[in-house]
Amino acid sequence: MRLIRTVVELGCRTRKMALPSSFTLPSDAVTRALVSIAEHAEDAFRLAAIETLAEMMLLDIDLVARTGGMRVLLSVLAEGPEEFAPVLVTTFLYVIDTPSTRAYLNPGTDLEIALSGITDAYGKGEAHTERMTACAKVVAAMLRTWSGLIYLCMDDMQAIRALIDTLRIPGLATRDVVLDLFFDLLHIKLPEWHAEFIKGRRLTMYGRQKPLANQPQDPTDSGPSRDKLNLIDHYIALLVLVFTNAGLVEALVTILEESTSSSKIARKATLLIGEVLQLANRLLPLAMAAKIQTLARVFNLATDYTDGHNRIVGTSALSSVDSFNRNRTRLQPNALNNSRQRANSVDEPVRRGQRQHVENRIKLGMQIDDRAFQALLLETQVLTAREHMKWNYDSLMDLIEGPMLNPKRLEEALKVSKFGKRLMLFFHPQTRKGFADMKRTKSNQKWVKLGCTLITTLLSNADGVRFLQTDDPFLKQLADALNDIDPTRGSMSADPTFSRPRVEETLTYGYFEILGTMSRYPEGLELLERFRIFTAFYRLSELRSREDLVRLIIEHIDYTQDGHPRILLSKALTSSYKHVREYATRHLGHLIHTSTRANSWMLRLLLTQLYDPAPEVCELAVHFLREACEDREILQLVVEMQPTLDHLGDIGHPLLLKFMSTPVGFHYLYTADYIDREMEGWFHERNKQYAVQIEIYLARA
Questions:
Q1: In sequence order, what are the residues at sequence separation of 6 or more whose Cβ sits closer than 8 angstroms to the Cβ of residue 460?
Q2: Residues 396 and 472 both lie in one domain
Q3: Contact predicate 630/619, CB 8 Å
Q4: Domain range for residue 153?
Q5: 369 in helix, strand or coil?
Q6: CB-side exposure of 543: number of CA atoms within 13 Å?
Q7: Are 117 and 158 in a shared domain?
Q8: pLDDT tens digit string along 554-576?
Q9: Average pLDDT value for the chain
Q10: Which residues contact 385 (CB under 8 A, 6 or more apart)?
Q11: What is the rounded distance in angstroms from the CA atom of residue 160 to the CA atom of residue 511?
Q12: CA–CA separation, 205 and 202 (whole Å)
């Protein structure tokens, strides 16, 4: 046996080095002797003979085929030993990959024998489960390669249909193994509550997971991730299409028909149906996904009024799938947010109904008569009580969002009664025990929302703008409070409104949200300029000790309209303090990420950050540019701006490779000699560096 192994190894070495040699593998007689040993289950040399035949098949498949070795190896693949299955399936996948070697296999019979451990499992009892599990691993290995998938899809997917049809056979162990196989193939990560769902328990004990307050965050995290699809996602999409075309959903519905909705196997089938619908919704083109989402078989059963059993089965199946989707939406909200919000988004109709309810309430509020309006003013308790704790917050919001949008009612609230002045007095920075002195607690956050809503209502009407401009000192006091912490303007008060402790512990920070709300409207921007609040912002952005205020300004100001807000952001991006530049760059990346269309001014500012002296800022800018350039329109804009990235070194290479995916980008890099330099570098040294990196990676793996 050692002699034969040495001859085979020499043949491998000759083949690998492509040396001209007359060296041949063992003769037919010796190969038949190996086949004879491999056929005897009790022979001590059987495993060595099987392994040797597998290696010889890669070197000379004709020799192994004509001596009967192929038949023995297929038998071992189907019946064991199980530890040889991964090796043999890889060998046969290599054989079917090329036309010259593929001819030695009989399509539809030879390699399909690997599925027999599952397809022939009916009636063999629990003892057969171990072999089925090993067979499932072989099938998974085949379906994870292009050659295996294409081979099993021949003859109208006969082999895959046979595998799926095993779900229709009433055998608990068989179905459980096959269901696990599909979960594995589709890369479905089961949620932590799946075990409770399968057991039929209520999921009310599970709530949405909240991020830990002290949990460190990725500095390049700019919010919800984009819906990026990689090569694995494309392959999973192909598998979903193949399986659904082969009848996977219908087979799963058969399980629901035969089992009660409370059984474990039925709930597992429901879980797989829900996950397949989600994958189709996220990965497949709309036309294909819509066809799968129809669940035609289930709806036919649910609407079958001639057969009571079928109707019960159909409605129970729909109820189970709906229950799974609702639990998934409640417990894993991001699972739906990352999809393209198609027909199975459960929350969208609810949100649409809530918006319509709010709009109807506002319309009705604007149409109330004088008596009802006076009653609503009194109901708020603003006119009868000076302490805000006695005010009716809900009535206040209804009044501000409804009747006060009517110019007549707004004028009455501001001029005829003391309602407007008393309410605004509460928000004045100099008012004792007012808004600025309230503790920064979760329950008090509603007063910040009230302030923003009030400002929005006032800016929607000329009388409201005039009230802020001439009749009320709110903006003047805010400007004075901001100037009070500027050391260049002389002496500061003992306890300024915007001192660091007050900003951290009270609702004082909410003034920046209110000012940010004002910056969304042209009238608000005009008022901010008139009271020189932007001038105060410019001075604050230069204070090294008050980066907390700079962050609040950058975060809450609106950049929709050109003018002071964008100048402030540009000033923060080029600040002399690195931590301010980092925060401003991160916020700019978030703005680009959440923007509905490409904005050239944002991209120009981000490109400026590529030349920042701090490597951390440059790395952040590259990260956000790469993320933004997933959008073809943004990529085209960036390429047209022709940024110079040579100074970034290895950090900038991924971005430049993105440029090469468009004709304009390729032409730009070609004229800049980037492509020639890269090719030269790869020919001379980087190919060796790459080989070393891959070998290190393989050693670790």
A1: 405
A2: yes
A3: no
A4: 106-165+173-186
A5: coil
A6: 22
A7: yes
A8: 888 888 888 888 888 888 888 88
A9: 78
A10: 391
A11: 64
A12: 8
Give the HSE-up count for residue 279: Cα atoms under 13 Å, Cβ half-sphere.
27
Residues 495 and 542 in one domain: yes
| b/e per residue 7-40 (b: at least 16 CB within 10 A) | bbeebeebeeeeeeeeeebbeeeebeebbebbbe
For residues 318 and 301, give the distance between their C-alpha atoms in angstroms, rounded to a whole number: 10
pTM (2 decimals)?
Answer: 0.56
Q: Is residue 216 part of a domain?
A: no
The C-alpha atoms of residue 482 and residue 499 are separated, in whole angstroms, by 10
**What's the CA gap between 679 and 677, in Å, rounded?**
6
Query: What interhelical angle do 172-185 and 129-143 show, nearest 10?
Result: 30
The pair of structure tokens assigned to 496 is 């300024």
Other Cβ atoms closer than 10 A to 124: 15
Answer with the one of 283, 309, 331 that is the final residue of a domain: 331
The rounded distance, in Å, linking the Cα atoms of 336 and 281 is 10
pLDDT, tens only, 353-404: 445 545 555 555 556 777 877 888 888 888 888 787 888 888 888 888 888 8
Residue 13 falls within a domain, yes or no? no
**In the chain, what is the straight-line distance between the N-terminal and C-terminal CA atoms, in Å?**
32
Residues 100-124: what's their mean pLDDT? 77
Number of domains the chain contains: 4
- State both tokens at 67: 């001596």
pLDDT at 166 over 80: yes
Does residue 633 lie in a domain region? no
Q: Which two tokens stand for residue 168?
A: 């229709």
Sign of CA dihedral 365, 371, 373, 376: negative
Q: Judge contact between 78 and 116, C-beta under 8 A.
A: yes
The 3-class secondary structure across 346-362, one letter per residue, is CHHHHHHHHHHHHHHHH
| Contact criterion met (CB below 8 Å) for 143 and 153 | no
Is cis: bond before 170, omega within 30 of 0? Answer: no
- Same domain, residue pair 79 and 132: no
